[in-house]
Amino acid sequence: MAGLFYPADPARARAEVEALLTAADSRGGGSVDHRDVPRRGSAPKALIVPHAGWRYSGDLAALGWRTLVPLRGTVSRVVLLGPTHRVAVRGLALPDADHVDSPLGPLRVPVDEVLSRTAHLPTPVRVHAATHRDEHALEVHFPFIHRVLGQVQVIPLNVGVADPADVADVIEELWGGNESVIAVSSDLSHHLSDRQAQVVDAETITRVLDRQDVESGRACGASPLNGLLEVCRRRDLHPRLLGAHNSSTVNGDVGRVVGYATFAVQEKARP
Fold it and tell me: Does 271 map to a domain?
């Protein structure tokens, strides 16, 4: 998806990531609705970040990823879950590769370890190469991960039809300690008018903050998102909204918009 959703050229991709992270760090105005942005002395355990092209939601993605800057050198693994847009899958699926590529460099994927660790679960992770081919929901985040955390491991999980409890079981199995962070990739409503989307997305944001499951029509990543919300309920963790807007703020088209939001989940015991 490089060249479509974000620059394929390494120099351009790095420059754009830097610009997006710098803008997020400045907490400037613009189209981002900045809310409860963590200070540098703390960092979340989990993120919910959007996955449109960087032109549309890169600012919000950067707003989430930049909160992990204090964890560079501590975090060695990112568990990244997202929906499928092209090839459907049941359950959760890894790519059939020991690494994923990005313009900023490769990130290693511990396939065998994940398969082994989740084999005992009701819905174990499996390998499904086709569902990762030409799928952008996870790929758009690889350059942010590489720039913010370095050459860490990434566990890219495409999540299809799955019970939230089963997705939560996988997240729990991979939760780890200070060496791991979790990220769910999801946009909000699609193809409503700006006025309709603002109402619907506000309702969805409230549901996420209240840790209530979200319907698939309100968030394309509802399946992995609801899994993370189940973990939040189990662990008594509370998502916080960092920012939200929709595509009309970029292209001016108020007739058909896509909504985006970024959230952070702080683990109580995390320094």
Answer: no
